[in-house]
Amino acid sequence: MSAPLHDPAAVAAGLIELLDPRAIEIAPDFATPATVAAFQADSSPQPGGHVFGGQVMGQAVTAVGRTVPEGRRIHSMYSYFLAPGDPAHPIRFQVDALRDGNSFSVRRVLATQPGRTRADGTTEGERTILAMTASFQEQQEGLEHQERAPEAPDPEGLPTTAQVLEGIDHPVARYWATQRPIDIRHVTDPIYLRPDPTSESPEATETQMVWMRMIAPVRAEPLLHDAILAFASDYTPFEPILRRQGLSWMTPGLRMATIDHAIWWHRHVDTNEWLLYVQRSPSASGGRGLTHGQLFDRSGDLVATVTQEGMIRVKDGS
Known about the structure:
Residues 139-160 are annotated as: Disordered. This protein is of the alpha+beta class and 318 residues long.
């Protein structure tokens, strides 16, 4: 996905193209008896030369969604991040059908890339960078209750990422300000550049809230809006951990990587509309941190729940 700087419509359109893998032939030497489809997708350039985990999750959601009976929407998914992705190589998605019941379908997808290049120029075999299991359900009636969104200021009155990072001459800051396809506006103080000033008080930093939506309106099928939600949900889960620890994205020696990420869709939304992402970190230990998030729509309805665990470390002496 590439787009001119400061062109939100082009950036948003690029995300739709990015999250829609193209169907390819199933490789016989890699297929299982349950394999029903295979897809391939490219990666969006990122600062530091890595593949954004939310991108791979979003592409995997679309891939599995292309294989279920019509009328079934994703209601849950669980992903393990097994290896960093290489943006120089396309990503292949192999989809296995685990179950098709009267109202539920379960799929497994493996995202793979060629292995590392050896000194003699040859490459190792395929390596799996992500493994996801996802469940889909027909729309049905049933019992209803939900938590409601907490009080939060309207997003229109909050600064954009570009405004927060204005004047910062750094490649990551420029990318966040101009090339991210999701408009992220912090209710709690942003910690891009400096720690939360209230980090001395655990109670004050217990909860983080951000508003999110597409950076510009897009026309897309419902499946792609589900994929966009998965993509966007991966932007800020580390921040509640950093906030509680008195750290920022710019802390020297900081190293982070997602281990696993789960989403439950309670209601399906149009990601052109604002979503309030309420996050907290109940635990950090053993070099890992856990975060729990809830996504609410503008009317206050709970639309999704997100849980993520990541590796998070600060090098000694930094």
